[in-house]
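Input record, target 12 of the design panel.
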């Protein structure tokens, strides 16, 4: 059986010949109307322009920014974890602790007793010989207070003892740690004034107040009632 041509129905028996036309160059308008062939790079979508972040809020609240030295990392982490559990901004929780401590200070429920330390004063004087921790190096009361306030787990203590510090890794002093917060300007200035009156570092005063506020919250003396807002919650709904 002879094989059929699959394209026979597309073929024309006697196509009408087309009369040859004289070659003529395309005019200038016709050339401009021709669409150029797309290149592979034309198929790749162009990257969208990166919009600049609006910094108006940051500029307006820049005076509220403050940095305190000497806030232990463990205390910073504790405050951050508590703020997350309450679903409130960390800075609002810091403000609540500071304002509570100032209120107790004004009501004589909290006393500031500064002690001489070189040319300035300190809120954490050296521990007496009766309760000073034993060891080759004498520990200051601030370090001892920190260990009592935020005890490390047994695992971390064992790891710290077993790990030797290299010669090229100098020991970082606790007062080199910094914490940055946004608090109202009057509150920031009030802390500065009290620190100047008692001749103590403002970072040490902030540490003293934050620890007092945290202990008051843990003891149930300070009650925090977050109020809902557009996103998250706030401790200061009237602002």
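The sequence produced for target 12 reads:
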């Amino acid at each position: 059986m002879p094989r059929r041509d699959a394209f026979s129905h597309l073929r024309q028996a006697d196509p009408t010949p087309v009369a040859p036309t004289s070659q003529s160059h395309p005019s200038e308008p016709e050339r401009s109307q021709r669409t150029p062939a797309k290149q592979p790079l034309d198929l790749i979508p162009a990257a969208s322009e990166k919009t600049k972040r609006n910094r108006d809020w940051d500029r307006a609240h820049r005076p509220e920014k403050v940095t305190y030295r000497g806030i232990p990392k463990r205390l910073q982490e504790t405050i951050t974890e508590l703020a997350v559990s309450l679903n409130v901004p960390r800075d609002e929780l810091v403000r609540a602790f500071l304002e509570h401590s100032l209120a107790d200070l004004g009501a004589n429920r909290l006393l500031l007793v500064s002690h001489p330390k070189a040319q300035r004063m300190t809120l954490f004087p050296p521990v007496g010989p009766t309760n000073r921790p034993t060891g080759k190096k004498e520990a200051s009361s601030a370090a001892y207070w920190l260990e009592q306030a935020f005890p490390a787990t047994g695992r971390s203590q064992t790891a710290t003892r077993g790990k030797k510090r290299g010669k090229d890794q100098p020991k970082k002093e606790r007062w080199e740690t910094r914490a940055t917060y946004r608090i109202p300007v009057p509150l920031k200035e009030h802390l500065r004034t009290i620190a100047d009156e008692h001749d103590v570092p403002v970072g040490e005063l902030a540490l003293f107040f934050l620890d007092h506020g945290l202990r008051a919250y843990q003891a149930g003396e300070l009650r925090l009632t977050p109020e809902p807002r557009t996103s998250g919650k706030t401790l200061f709904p009237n602002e």
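The beta strands are 65-69, 115-117, 120-122, 178-182, 227-228, 233-234.
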